Amino acid sequence: MEIPSKPLFKLGQLLVTPGALEALQASRQSPWVFLTRHIQGDYGDLDAEDKALNALAVQDGSRLLSAYTTSKGTKLWLITEADRSATTILLPDEY
User: Fold this and answer.
1) Which of 20, 55, 64, 85 is 20 to 30 A from 45, comparing alpha carbons?
2) What digits encode the pLDDT tens for the residues 20-74?
3) pTM above 0.90, yes or no
């Protein structure tokens, strides 16, 4: 999958927890499916308040959170740190 030419923010180092890796493998989905949505500002299954916080985070450099569901029904979170040093794909219970 191709990274968009103008992402909204830097991902930093990419990390995947064991549970998220297992969920991605079970669903046969690439992490890039979710990472691409994340950096394009499609934050997935968040409420309006959390999406608004992400819009501010792009501007002020605070942490970003996205929530997605794999094709097998497993919820994934993507968190980009405030300093943009890393983005982690994890299960909510691994937080």
Assistant:
1) 85
2) 999 999 999 999 999 999 999 999 999 999 999 999 999 999 999 999 999 999 9
3) yes
Domain ranges of the chain: 13-94
**Alpha-carbon span 89 to 91, nearest angstrom:** 7
pLDDT bucket at 6, cuts 50 / 70 / 90: confident
Separation CA 65–CA 92 (nearest Å)? 11
User: How far is residue 54's CA from residue 22's CA, in Å, rounded to a whole number?
Assistant: 27
Spell out the residues 6+ positions from residue 66 whose beta carbon is closer than 8 angstroms to its own.
Answer: 34, 37, 38, 42, 43, 44, 46, 54, 77, 78
Distant-in-sequence, close-in-space partners of 41: CB < 8 Å, separation ≥ 6: 8, 54, 55, 58
